[in-house]
Amino acid sequence: MARTIAIRVVLGLLTLLGVSILIFAATEILPGDVATAVLGQGATPDTVRVFREELGLDRPAYIRYLEWLGGAVQGDFGVALTNKRDIVKTMSPKLFNTLFLAGYAALIAVPLAVGLGILAAIKEGKWIDRTANIVSLAAISMPEFFLGYLFIFFFAVQNRWFPSLATVYSSMPLDKRIYVVAMPAVCLTLLVTAHMLRMTRSSVLAIMSQPYIEMAFLKGLSRARVIFVHALPNAAGPIITVVALNLAYLIVGVVVIESVFVYPGIGQFMVDGVSKRDLPVVQACGLVFAAAFVILNTVADVLSILVNPRLRKPR
Amino acid sequence: MAEGASKATTDQVLKITDLRIESIHGLVLVDNVSLELKRGEVLGLIGESGAGKSTIGLGAMAYSRGGCRITGGKVEIDGVSIRDLSAEGRREMRGRRIAYIAQSAAASFNPAHKIIDQVIEMPVKHGIMSKTEAKAWALELFRALDLPKPEIFGERYPHQVSGGQLQRAMTAMAMSCRPDIMVFDEPTTALDVTTQIEVLALIKKLIHEYNTAALYITHDLAVVAQVSDRIMVLRHGKMVELGDTKQILGAPRTDYARALVSERKEADHLSQLPKVDTAHVLEVTNAVGVYETFVAVNNVSIHVAKSETVAVVGESGSGKSSLARLILGLLPRRSGSVKFNGKELPPALKERSKDDLRRIQFIYQQPDVALNPRQTIAEIIGRPVQLYFGRSPAEVKRRVAELLVEVGLPEDYAGRLSTALSGGQKQRVSIARALAAEPDLIICDEPTSALDQLVADGVLKLLKKLQDELGVAYLFITHDLGIVRRIAHRTAVMLKGEIVAQGPTAQIFNPPFHPYTERLISSVPEMRTEWLDEVLAKRRVG
């Protein structure tokens, strides 16, 4: 088992390495480079050349990649081109904000989705099952910005219950922060619940038709015990996987929601970087997103191995 | 319950009156069946699939599977009508007063929990024993059931023990509440014969020791003969005949029961088969086949002549199917040779010519899975005709009709989907598909083991008829020695990837035996009620 887990972790690291190459290559093949971007179209070829040498852009790509990667591994993404500030320092609070929002949404969404999923499976075909399915499907089918503006319209403009802008600052007390960020968090919850709910429902349902569930009923066990003790542990694998994917989405996919609520997260930061052609910033954000994805999925894989006695205890 | 009470006590523990179970579409699955069970008595329920045996067994627990419901009748356990109880009341009865033992222990144990936790769950949750008491009782049962290292056996997960051990553990689980009644639903069908005999003996011992009443459901008359006092023969959800075991076996009163009995008896006789050509169609010499590091086929030599049937017998995991895969080119051959019509065949499937492929066909165990559910019968059978012989659509159509008639199916089945057919009909389609390629050799991998006795009999007769007419050779893989006796000219016995005995069937089935062959043969239940006790007595002496 230790071997299986080690292989998962190594594969995760290799994936990350592959992604770092892709990110670097993608920013490399963009037309023009940082020098022309910073100096603008009016720059003479000479100034561009001098600036390129100054930035080290005249050296071969692989050397620059290795330098970049070496720095990234040590937590150094260099400085932003536009304002010459250290990227990690600028990014950290924004990353914290994003993680805060993601964690906030996850704390609501995961128990809600898994709980409703189990409930829907138990009450298959009954009104609660249908309602949960329709509502969650409707929520996921709506474009997220539309959902965001609907929220602002109803809860911030019509009824002044919440602020329309989720402005946070580092010294903000926790209770205030929770209040301010509530709207985007609920918005995100609605977006990720459907997927997790449906997966939970279908994996629990698949397990409920197994012979050992019938056996559990024939043993005269209560319904609750059959579901929680006999069905759930076997349905855990797929549920963990889909939860991890959605947690990753909460970190990576929040760009639009952050924009709608003007929330100072890492998504906003990346969008700014792109619009200003600040490539080191874009690269750094890309790598952070990739790392979030890979780490969460690797953790899910390892957990799935741990909850499966066939993998945990070989013959 | 009164332990050690004599078998003669007359008190009735289970009484089912006019039980009626229907599917939600109104199909009658169990049609007014009544039965009674006394303490310590075993009633065998026998019949083919669809006879409603399991449905009655579950009905005795007032349980019906999804898609069916109990629509009438009374089920009384110790005088309490359990259909009149609340859901909670029924739940309390299940497991505690009446316990169920399923066919597949592997599927009925929860893979996520240790065996001991599942065994003691019932008494603890029903509140009749503390955890420690339940564990002590489980240990006693594990001992009684001859489980290896009973003290630590329960600490394992279901996937860590063998099928026979798991089946015994399930019996222990059913006994954990010391129920009055046990429902055995084909408890040994999924086991190998040599394992079946052990489990059967232990079940019998346990029932007697604790004076438990039992419903014993099976399709195998010889098995039920060993354990039951009375037998009820069922067909299409109706009772056909009910009587003492000896009477049913010796002098069945109804035609259907007679057919079942004589069919089963026929399996014990050796058929006289005509002599065959000596020209070898298939010749395998010293073949070795390996899955990664596991040697599945070890130094096997076997040959099949024109219009000859060679049976390969052995228990699960003995390498029978691997040998078939090796011949077909699906399992890589490490060494040795496979000659077909005197010509060496390349080890791998993709290196073989289209003609090589055509000449060896294959019939699978599960016709349900082997036929594409989205294709019509005409497409399934017509494909090889078109592929190997490149006939025109009209000729393909004619040939399909011909083949259907040949395998005993109506011509107008051509337009149907295979899903609309019964198991036996599907297997006939598989045979027609194999024949369509006009092969020299057909490898049959347990082609009748998923079928009911009488249906299987029809398929075997068809295979024999086709051999007489077309001269096709069969390599017939099976675990059923009855089939071997009836159809095989020669027999090879496999054990752990090797052939331990090989020769004309009559020779294999008569002394002197290879020890393993003897064990295999003596483990096949016979249609005598004393058989099990005799075999066990003999083995104890031996």
From TrEMBL, chain A:
Its main location: membrane. The chain crosses the membrane at residues 99-122, 134-157, 177-197, 235-261, 281-307. Keywords: Cell membrane, Membrane, Transmembrane, Transmembrane helix, Transport. PROSITE patterns: ABC_TM1. CDD domains: TM_PBP2. Pfam families: BPD_transp_1, BPD_transp_1_N. Residues 95-300 form the ABC transmembrane type-1 domain. Coiled coil: none annotated. It is a multi-pass membrane protein. It is found in: Cell membrane. It comes from the Bacteria. Belongs to the binding-protein-dependent transport system permease family. This is ABC transporter permease. It comes from Dongia sedimenti. The lineage of its organism: Bacteria, Pseudomonadati, Pseudomonadota, Alphaproteobacteria, Rhodospirillales.
UniProtKB/TrEMBL annotation, chain B:
Keywords: ATP-binding, Nucleotide-binding, Transport. It is a peripheral membrane protein. It is found in: Cell inner membrane. It comes from Dongia sedimenti. NCBIfam families: PRK10419.1. The keyword Transport applies. This is ABC transporter ATP-binding protein. SUPFAM superfamilies: P-loop containing nucleoside triphosphate hydrolases (SSF52540). Residues 14-261, 282-521 form the ABC transporter domain. GO terms for molecular function: ATP binding. Gene3D superfamilies: P-loop containing nucleotide triphosphate hydrolases. The keyword NADP does not apply. Belongs to the ABC transporter superfamily. It comes from the Bacteria. InterPro entries: AAA+_ATPase (IPR003593), ABC_transp_ATP-bind (IPR050319), ABC_transporter-like_ATP-bd (IPR003439), ABC_transporter-like_CS (IPR017871), Oligopep_ABC_C (IPR013563), P-loop_NTPase (IPR027417).
